[in-house]
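Data availability (excerpt). The following record was deposited with the supplementary files.
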Amino acid sequence: MLNKAQIAIKTIYISIIGNFLLAVVKATSGIYGNSYALVADSLESCVDVFASLIALIALRYAAKPPDEDHPYGHGKIEPLITFLTVLFLVSTATIIAHQSIINIQEPHEPPKTFTLFVLGIIIIGKEIFYRVLTKKGNETDSSLLKAEAWHHRADSLTSGAAFIGILVAVIFGEKYAAADDWAALFASAIIYYNSFLIFRPAFGEIMDENLYDDLILKIRKIAKENPRVVDTEKCFVRKTGMYYFVDLHLIVSGKISVKEGHEISHEVKKEIITKEKDIIDVLIHIEPDE
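Predicted structure:
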């Protein structure tokens, strides 16, 4: 059975192949079909390929076990690379917006009709990729896979905008040829917005923001199942890559020995790690019941 890191790496390979093939199809269709919206779409897919390659390297690095220099593992590389991916997306959106504004001001021929059929296939393909990567991203809890999924959804939305722009240009002729460029401009706005959606959770992860209330409730419940645990106090969870580290304060009887308190902490730690497979370590502090 594949572990979470192996699932994420395998999924990234699929994403890379898909983005590369779509980038070629978009670029070829955009150039021969006289559609800047499609060319802009292909540019985004090229950036996605590059970003996916970096994500692949990051996932392989994140999968390395903890060592002397990195006792908490190497998972923080994931949100760091996600920031780089966001930078690529913002740069792409800026280039597309700049060229769209130039094209809107210069008269040109409308796009060819066949580009609509190409876009229809691309939209369906990208939506499939989005759903597959979202499922795997939730399954592995990988911020990188979730960012990859949003790349495909952004591509699907920008392709949809291009479809509408080209349709208007094809139906109404040369007078409305700029509709294709307006679509590309709208697509850049969508990319900006999705860049923020990708950035926000990765930023929360790197800052150890408290985003795991449901997991904390599960941890407290497991801890209190131990008959020698009176209650739980503080519980902090930090995410590192696709896994979690927990700091938990247990309240036990103040009359027991240090040795017994030590035994309780080991019992609770073992139970938590056994029942919650994504937690790889639990640091427990014993508090006396007053």
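Summary of structural features: The first strand starts at residue 229 and ends at 240.
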